Amino acid sequence: MGKWRYGVVLDAGSSGTRVHVYRWLNSDTARAQASETQLQSLPVLETDKKWIKKVHPGISTFGDNPEDVGPDHLEKLLTHALKYVPLDEVPNTPLFLLATAGMRILPPPKRKVILAEVCDFARRTTQFQLPDCDVHVQVIPGETEGLYGWIAANYLLGGFDRPKDHDHGKGHHTYGFLDMGGASAQIAFAPNATEAEKHANDLTLVRLRTVDGAPMEHKVFVTTWLGFGVNQARQRYVNALLEASPEETELPDPCLPSGLRVTIEGKPVKSGSPEENGKEPQLVGTGKFSECMHQTYPLLEKDKPCLDNPCLLNGQHVPAIDFDVNHFVGVSEYWHTTHELFGMAHKDRAYDFKTYQQQVSEFCSQSWEEIERGVERGKWGKKVDQEKAQEVCFKASWLINVLHDGIGVPRVGIEELQGTKNTTHALLKGAKEKGFLDPFQAVNKIGDVEVSWTLGKMVLYAASEIPAHSSEALAVGFGSNEPGIPADFQYPGGEYKPLADDWHDQLFSESPRRIPGLLIFVLIIFVVGFMLCGRERRKSAGQKVLRVFGRGGRPGSLRRRRGFPGKLFGIGSTPSYERVLESGEGADDFELGSFDSISDNDHSDSSEGSRIGRTSGWATPQIKAGLADPATPTYFESGRDILGQGAGLGLGPASMFSNPIERGGLMSRTDSRERLSGGKRSRANSPSRLRSPMIPLKEV
C-alpha cells in the first residue's frame, strides 16, 4: 500500500456526468510529516483539472435503455479515472456515483434499474471498491448535495482550519453556501448562536476529524428548493404565460431580447414551422428587463403558507439569517449568470447588485440582431454563444429575485451593511479583494480549485479514515442534531472496526473476512477432534464417508486408500496415520486453495477506448507499515499553504488511496443510505464476489 489514498466521485447531473479524482496522504504518513498547525487541520486533498472529465448527456436519459449506460456513458469516465489512479491502488480506491436533480425526477422503477446497471458495470469492468451499491451508487437528496457543497466551500476558504483568521464576529467563522442548478437550488449555513439554539431541531450535526484524530463538529442548516433551479423556473414561467393567454399564439416575453422569437421549448422559430404558421404558440421577445423582474417575482411563491416561521421561499422553513456574520458564496448558475457574460473585466470582484442590474438592463434592452453580432465578434468571450445570450435575461432576473427578495441578501451598492465591524482592517482589506466578507459572492474556483460538492464528499470520507485519538470518540459523518450517534447518522462510506488483540475477536468480528475465517476455524477443530477420537472410530467414519461418495465399498473392504485421505482415516495396509502431520506428507496435500489474482494489466489506461480492467470483487483493502518513501518530497515539505493554495488542490500527478484500516485494523463497510433520502439503514453487506475464501492481512 502506497502513501497516497485515492477516491473517485462521479457527479451524475441532469445535463451530464463528471468524474472527479482526489488523493490525500494516508493518515500515518500525514501525521508523521505534519507541523503542529497541520495536525490540527483536516486532511489535505489534492486534485487537478486534468483529473476531471465530463460526458453528455445525463444518465437519466438512459431510462428507456439502461443497458447502454455502461458502454455508452460510464466507460469513458472510468477509463479516464484509471489514467490517474495507480494500478496497484485501484482495488483500494472507493468509487462513488452520486446522482442529483436529473435522476430525482425520473420514475422510481427506471431510476432503480439505471443505478443497478451502473453498479454492475463498474464491478464487472473495474477493480474499484464497491462494497455496497446502495451506499456507493445512489441518488442523493438536495439537502445532502447542499451539505457537501458547504463542506467544500469552507474547506477551501479555510473556515474550518483557521477560525481566528475568519472571525466574522459573534464567534462565527464559517461561510454560507448557495447552489443553483437546472432543477433545484440549495442553501446551507451555520446560524448564529441565538438562531442555532432556537432552531436546534432543524440543524444537521456534521462531525469531521483532524489529522491528529481530534473531533470537529458543526451545526448546519440545509434545505433544497426543488423546481427553483433556472430551467425548472423558466418552465414554470412559460406555463404561466400560456395559462394567462390560452388563445394567443404570440406571447410577449419581456425576458427575451427584443425581436427574438422562440418556441415554448426555447428553440428558435424556423421558417414554415407550426409556430410561424400560427398553429402553435410562440414567444416574442420585448427586451424589457424591469418587467421581466416583475413577472418572475411570483415564481418565488412567497405567499405560500409558512407552517414553521420563519420561511423564505415556497413556504419552507429557514432560520433567520444574520448577514452580519453569514457571508455566502454561490456556485453553478450563481457564477455562470453573473460572470460568464457580465464579469469578464472583474472576475475576482465581489458581486455588486447595483452594477450587475445595470449591466443586465443594458444588455437585455438591445435588439436580438445587435446581440447576435456581438456573439459573432466574441464580444462576451468564447464561452458565450447564441443559446447563452438568449437565456441570460431570464436567468439574471431569476437570480436577482431569489437572492434579494427570496433569501434576503442585502443589495450591495444600495443598502448599507452593518457587518464586518468586528474584523481587523488588514483582514477586511484582503478578504474584500475576493469578496468573501460581503453578504454574497459568486465563485467558481478558490485557489484554482473548483468549488464542487464532490470535494465535500471526499473531505468527509478522508476525515473518516483518520483513527480517533480517543476510544470514546464518535464516528465521522452527519445526522440529526442529537448527542451521540443518531439513528439517521450517515457514514461517509466506511466505518472503522479496530482489530482486537485476542484472536477470537478477530475471527468473529464484523468483517467481510468473518465467514471464511469461521469456516477455517471449524475445519481446524474438526481435524483436531478427529485425530483424538481413536483409530477404529476414524476408520469406521472414513469407510462411511467414502461409501457415501461411491468410493468405500462395504465395511471391511480390502480396497486400499493410498495417500493422505487413506492415512487420515486409518484405511490402508500401513499404519502411517500417527505421523501424518510430522512427516510432511499430509501437509503437502492439506492446503488452502490458492488466491485467484487478476492483474490490473488487463486494461490499458493510455486511451479512452481501451478496455477497463476486470474486478476482483474484494472491497476491503490491506495495510502495510512503512509506506512513506523518504526520498520523495512530501506535500508538507513543499511549503504549500492550505488556504492560499486552495487546500493543496490542483497539484502534481496522481497516485492515491491508502487504506482505512490502521494498525492491523479491519474495515467494516457500514451500509447506510444518505440521511435525507429516508433515514433508513441498509442491511449489513459484504462483497458478493470473493475470489478466495480468505485473504491474509499483510504483516504490519
UniProtKB/TrEMBL annotation:
The chain crosses the membrane at residues 515-534. GO terms for molecular function: ATP binding; GDP phosphatase activity; ribonucleoside triphosphate phosphatase activity; UDP phosphatase activity. Residues 592-618, 654-700 are annotated as: Disordered. PROSITE patterns: GDA1_CD39_NTPASE (PS01238). Signal peptide: none annotated. GO terms for biological process: CTP metabolic process; UDP catabolic process. Pfam families: GDA1_CD39 (PF01150). Keywords: ATP-binding, Hydrolase, Membrane, Nucleotide-binding, Transmembrane, Transmembrane helix. One of its GO terms (cellular component) is membrane. ATP binds at G182, A183, S184, A185, Q186. The active site is at E145. InterPro entries: GDA1_CD39_NTPase. Belongs to the GDA1/CD39 NTPase family. PANTHER family: ADENOSINE/GUANOSINE DIPHOSPHATASE, NUCLEOSIDE-DIPHOSPHATASE MIG-23. This is Nucleoside phosphatase family-domain-containing protein. The lineage of its organism: Eukaryota, Fungi, Dikarya, Ascomycota, Pezizomycotina.
